[in-house]
From TrEMBL:
Highest taxon of source: Bacteria
Stated name of the protein: ABC transporter ATP-binding protein
Organism phylogeny: Bacteria, Bacillati, Bacillota, Bacilli, Bacillales
Molecular function as annotated in GO: ATP binding; ATP hydrolysis activity; transmembrane transporter activity
Entries under SUPFAM superfamilies matching the protein: P-loop containing nucleoside triphosphate hydrolases
Length: 258
């Protein structure tokens, strides 16, 4: 059953020069799916995430989320919808520097006026699962990038959203931390049936997903599904990227995935 339906969505930015960033894009995301969105710079990936996250509205077409049409909600309902249904993970972690790790993680529950009991119970369970217990009292500038991203993932999960939207979550991480974060997202996807949409430029990151959707010039270009082996999926991702043009696919094609 789809959790998200993108139907014929077009986004035109009006300005001195009008720009059609998305053009009649249609696809669905199944509940529990881990989807990567790839495409060259300027192809409309951030625009798409902004529309799904309800930060922006489509010019035409419909976005249906669990039978709800966010376009029809007023601003209070939208803020509530966003807080309830969505969790966000960003490239630069977006943790608040003056708060401790623990305070950062429970922030969405604080905003939702949850009881201390619920906060403590969810925090303890997530901290254990995501291996955060030994630095809960530190501040973001006292932990590594990989640890910061795990904290951001915990914050995205604590209110048990229906969907996680991740924008280049490994963009600022070294390869070991990237791998840890991707394995964590895969685990969350498998064990909690969490639906994840991840925008990435990195074919290794995309190879952790169930499906990769490629867009070009704001339009659907291709999609491929993962088979049994991540290595062959990775090679197929590289093949589509080389058709898309740009990037350094040649440098990557000899990589053996760990
Ligand atoms: N607010 C805006 N006003 C006008 N044009 C915009 C605006 N935001 C994005 N665009 C244009 O829309 C197109 C798609 O941009 P978008 O940021 O969605 O691409 P992207 O695929 O996320 O790129 P990147 O990989 O570089 O982040 C680009 O040509 C961009 O210049």
């Amino acid at each position: 059953m789809p959790i998200l339906q993108i139907e014929d969505v077009t986004k035109v930015y009006e300005g001195k020069v009008t720009h059609r960033a998305l053009n009649q894009l249609t696809f669905e995301v199944e509940k529990g799916e881990f989807l990567a969105v790839m495409g060259p710079s300027g192809s409309g990936k951030s625009t798409l995430l902004n529309l799904i996250s309800t930060i922006d509205r489509p010019t035409s077409g419909e976005i249906i989320f669990n039978d709800i049409k966010p376009q029809n909600l007023n601003s209070t309902e939208l803020a509530f919808f966003r807080r309830r249904e969505l969790g966000f993970v960003f490239q630069d972690f977006n943790l608040l520097p003056m708060l401790t790790v623990e305070e950062n993680i429970v922030l969405p529950l604080t905003l939702d006026n949850q009881t201390v009991e619920v906060m403590e119970q969810r925090l303890a369970s997530l901290a254990k699962k995501l291996d955060l217990t030994h630095f809960l009292q530190k501040r973001p500038n006292e932990i590594s990038g990989g640890q910061a991203q795990r904290v951001a993932i915990a914050r995205a999960l604590i209110h048990e959203p229906s969907m996680i939207l991740a924008d280049e979550p490994t963009g600022n991480l070294d390869s070991n931390s990237s791998r840890e974060v991707l394995e964590l997202l895969s685990k969350i996807n498998r064990e909690r049936q969490a639906t994840i949409i991840m925008v990435t430029h990195d074919p290794i990151a995309a190879s952790f997903c169930d499906r990769v959707l490629f867009i070009k010039d704001g339009e659907f270009f291709n999609e491929i599904h993962r088979d049994d082996r991540r290595q062959t999926f990775f090679q197929r991702i590289l093949n589509v990227l080389s058709l898309l043009g740009g990037g350094q696919v040649g440098d990557l094609s000899s990589i053996r995935l760990p």
